[in-house]
Sequence to fold (97 residues):
Amino acid sequence: MKYSLHPEAQQDLREAAGFYRERGGGALAQSLLAEFEHCVNLLLQHPQLGALWRRGKRRLIVQHFPYSIIYTIVADEVRILAFAHHSRRSGYWRGRK
Fold:
């Protein structure tokens, strides 16, 4: 199993890490990135781990941070479509494939 990160999901992650770096320092930003990597590793081992969510997408809630990973499973690949903040406009990522 492998994974791909949609370019806009990569931007979501960069913006989140930048926010935490500005507000809480580098250690907090690194903690966010480490938690993201931990979630990705879990998904690679157990792709069905996230709850079935909207329009065939799956959602894995990130621990310790108000984010979810929105993804789909295609063949042997986990496609991460969004790193979505829980307070952001719901479904802003819908057009991503």
Observations:
- DSSP finds two helices and five strands in the chain.
- The two ends are 18 Å apart (CA to CA).
- The chain has a mean pLDDT of 92.
